[in-house]
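Reopening: carbonyl reductase (NADPH) still failing for me.
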Amino acid sequence: MASKIAVVTGANKGLGFSIVKGLCLKFDGVIYLTARDEKRGREAVDKLKALGLHPEFHLLDVSDENSIKDFADYIKTKHGGLDVLVNNAGILESNVYPTYDAAKRNIDINYRSLLSIEKWLYPLLRDGARVVNVSSACGHLSNLKNKKWLEILQKKDLTTKEINEFVEEYLESIRNGTFNKDDFVDEGKHAEHRVSKMAMTALTMVQQRKYQDKNISINAVHPGHVKTDMANGKGDLEADTAAQTILYLILDASPNLKGVFMWHDKKIVDWYDYEGDYFCKDIW
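Support: Ran it again with your exact input. Result attached.
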């Protein structure tokens, strides 16, 4: 029988590193620590090997579709399929009101990369596979106040095309100077991050519906405010602690848990509760 295969993106440090470490301790199979920088990725693998753990390294830049395709070809040739995929790679821009280029970079990495990953890696998902998309509190619908998009994103038959239109309309508002802070909570601070993570959470549900006929679980998670470089020294959860919710979804959760948004305390939140108190607050 073929070995089970797990892949974690953006895993050379922070939360991704902790997820790989946790999988090495509990997952019976081959674990790939992937990163866009080969030197940093291999150094991360060496750190885990020093602890007696044995992940594999593979280069993967999620912002480069060719890199995703090359990695998919490698997995298909070497292993034939994939059992666990954690989409963890992500960035946060330093400016609370970013330029168009910075906003586009955030969305390309945090959201649009998932479309390329779906194209190349999802066909390799085996029966019983589990996918976890690492979202955040910024990925909850309560971050949004624009009535038009609230109505569209709450649709039970939402499509990827509509999510893309939401993202593109936001980016166009930055490009042409019509961005409205009142379309978001918290005076529109880091709207690019909120948009990218809301798009990711919405895509999770669209993808689960799309793959409903296959025995695959696709869920999103808010891991908490994690003490990582992205949090600029802030945060209230150690990465190893935050990784536990993701490990739970991979290893222990019921296979019937599909298309949900799980909070860091393992509670399932209602993504459609746009009047809820789930939005991200001063996490930068």
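The chain has eight helices and eight strands. If you still see a failure, please send the error message rather than a screenshot.
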